[in-house]
Amino acid sequence: MSLTRRTVIATGLAAAAAPALSAGAHAAAGKGSSNAAYFSLGYAPHEGSFASRGALLEQIAFAADQGFRAWEDNEAAKRPVEQQEAMARALSQRGMTMGVFVASMPKWSDFRPVLGSNDNGDREAFLADIRASIAVAKRLGARHMTVVTGFMDRKVPEAIQTGRIIDCMRRAGDIVAPHGLTLVMEPLNTRTNHPGVFMHSIAQGYAVARGANGPGVKILADLYHEQIQSGNLIPTLESCWAEIGYIQFGDNPGRKEPGTGEINYATITRWLRARGYDGVIGMEHGNSVPGREGEERLIAAYRAIDKT
Length: 308
Known about the structure:
Elements: H1 14-17, H2 23-27, E1 42-44, H3 56-65, E2 70-71, H4 81-93, E3 97-98, E4 101-104, H5 121-140, E5 144-147, H6 158-176, E6 182-185, H7 202-212, E7 217-222, H8 223-229, H9 233-240, E8 244-249, H10 265-275, E9 280-283, H11 291-306
Parallel strand pairs: 1-9, 2-3, 4-5, 5-6, 6-7, 7-8, 8-9
Helix pairs in contact: 3-4, 5-6, 6-7
């Protein structure tokens, strides 16, 4: 997910505020039309991607003017309602799709929640977070919400923890599915950023999603984390595709824009396009260079992988 769980990161009804990611939909948006060609895929910047352009709403407007078709905001649930509504209006006016926000945030310093433990308290608190997130999703026009399945309990066999987490995610999925929402579980790498987390690979997420067995639970495939933990990105996506609900980019090492590390994102975008993927792709990374120069490099990096 984040760089420190990152300090980064319209109107009304979910259906109205989550337009299809297609050039036609954007051409019909009317207000604030773009002055640049739309990207062929739904890359989603976040607050901080274009920090030099102003505050949150100014950054959304700038992103739209560069042809970006989506937006992502991990921190959206923590924002005041008025700001959530203003963001939703801005996205709607620009014909942009809202990507994920975090529905339940781990307590990183406490290594909690432990959803597979013998204590049911963390599971009930997690489900309470999920219930509370529904109103936020509807306000923002979001259809996907990020969750992290917590940390390992070293006193409980991993197979038992897996079963308990499957049960917990099934319950969570049953809460959101009637609202047309999907929880996307994010596997996080343990080698660089998040030692001790329970879910650390897309393959592990696939097993939990299959066990939960419902439209309300899928995987968030953050390719930065997967490259560190497992590699073999395209075969893994192919094998687990039925349970992948959302994708995020970030190069490795460094977690910056495509082209700054070892991941061949041009090949991955070709694969996604061939697959017919029309969802959001979160730009879950920082800029390799500060200021406006870095913002221009960011745009150029996505132009380079998008046209291949």
